[in-house]
Amino acid sequence: MKKQSVELSRRHFLRRGLGGLALGASAFGVLPSRRAAALNAARRVSANDRIQLAVIGTGGMGRANLGYALQRDDIQPIALCDIYQRNLERGAQMVAQKFPDFERYKDFRELLENKDVDAVVIATSDHWHCLCTLHAADAGKDIYCEKPLSTTIAEGHAMVDAVKRNKVVFQGGNMQRSGAHFQEAVQLVQAGYIGKVARVETWSHDNTNLDGIGMGEDDQAKYESDEYGADWEFHQGWVEHRPFNTNRWIYNFRWFLEYSGGKITDWGAHLVDIALWAMGEENQPRRVSAQGGKYLMRDNRTTPDTLECAWEFDDYLITFTNRVWNPQLLDGSVSDHGIVFYGTQGLLRVDRGGYEVIPFPNNGGCEARKMAGGPISEPHWQNFADCIRSREKTISNVDVLHNTTRVCHMGTCAYVAGARFASGATMQDGELPDEAPVSGGAMLEWDDAAQRFIGGDAEMVERANQWAYRAYKNGWSLEAPYRTV
Asked: Cα(57)–Cα(65) distance, rounded to whole angstroms?
């Protein structure tokens, strides 16, 4: 979307209020059109008018999404899947309070053979998002997939193709797009309310102590017993297989480079998403730089505990900063996340608590403005349910989430391209050694037409492209039927 040119004065713009801005759900296609409502009778939902839902992955985010679905009378969970028996039972306990009849599965492929399922939630570890999506799209299921979309740029391309080829509805889990205050903040930036924006800062900080996630447990037999019911080999899937460790599983998988990108694909997928939306999603970075390392944490994570990433566009810069160990800002205040747009006439800061415009007197200035935060997940699920019936695109359709995830992956690829290891080991054939980089980083140019890194140090460019397009292993494939052994 191109940024609007606004001729009316900012004072008149302010007086127009929400009605003049056409802000809120309908401004971003969240509500179905009259045409879509007329087509409602042709929707692909079950005969009793309830959307029959399945959840693949019933860990923290899976159960959170299950909770939002259970709040609604137009959705009925009929199937749950998880390879970890304890999480499967936790999800089952939630569903049983409202619906006594539902199926349990350990293999998502068997769940997808259930023809009563209209839509699926995919809330697995990140490196399973792609294969679950490919299978679900081919089975004709509508999809709600947690962010980030993928673990590699190659996966993202395959997922976009599968969703469009099968004409299924797709909603990404970057639910901030459905928050009214985020929508209004985006509209203000696009309308030029704070003037020309040339700098956007995003950050996600933690106050984790230096022991972090610890070293995990290595007792594979314990966790594969009937008491826990884990399947370590299946969990690892297509990536390079490593020795069992509980930190590489459940929530903490996101701090290991094989399965995720750390904070840049965890919270960055929320924060950078809003920055890209406001600045125009048709714009693509020309170059990316990343710098950081695992400087302080005494655990076994392989993602950095300190990271600075910058994406340079034609006429503006977006950055993402993460400190795992200290959330203080320059003035001593504490902020775990946020986004700031710096314009020629003011700045706009937005996070889940709301937004605020702070005028800058030069260049004509603007007027102060603020809005408190509100619900984001409930309207996001409303949008998904509406679009299942209307067959319209969701507010976080597959192109949206692919674009945001790809930009975040560009940062990880730049970090990995310059990774340095205490052992002296290096990347070999696109795979990292089984240890955390002590530091990493590179500056690379990006060829959007080719979807490849170019420019900069030749070895670093090669490593970045290898990481972006890592080959599938262990008999898994991005080509149907996706499993070769």
From this structure: 10
| CA–CA distance, 133 with 120 (Å, rounded to integer) | 9
CA distance 88 to 66: 12
Residues 6+ apart with CB under 8 A from 338: 201, 202, 203, 271, 349, 350, 351
The predicted structure's pLDDT at residue 37: 33
Q: Are 469 and 153 in contact (CB under 8 A)?
A: yes
Tell me which residue of 156, 97, 109 sits closest to 129, measured CA to CA.
Answer: 156
Q: How far apart are CA 269 and CA 263, in angstroms?
A: 9
Report residue 476: phi and psi, to 5°.
Answer: -90, 155
Q: How many CB atoms lie within 10 A of CB 346?
A: 26
Domains identified in the chain and CATH numbers: 25-176+379-396 (3.40.50.720), 178-235+258-374+405-468 (3.30.360.10)
CB-CB contact of 437 with 293 (8 Å): yes
Which stretches of 248-376 are DSSP H helices?
263-266, 268-279
Listing from the earlier edge strand, what are the strands of the sheet with 103-105?
A: 103-105, 75-81, 51-56, 119-122, 142-145, 170-172
Is this structure's pTM higher than 0.85? yes
> ω into residue 32 within 30 of 0, thus cis?
no
DSSP state of 139: T
Q: Are 478 and 468 in contact (CB under 8 A)?
A: no
Angle at 70 between CA 68 and CA 73, to 5 degrees: 110
Predicted confidence (pLDDT) at residue 47 exceeds the cutoff of 60: no
338: exposed, middle or buried (Cβ count in 10 Å: 0-12, 13-18, 19+): middle
pLDDT tens-digit series, residues 13-40 = 333 343 334 333 334 443 333 333 333 3
Judge whether 179 and 25 are in contact, CB under 8 Å.
no
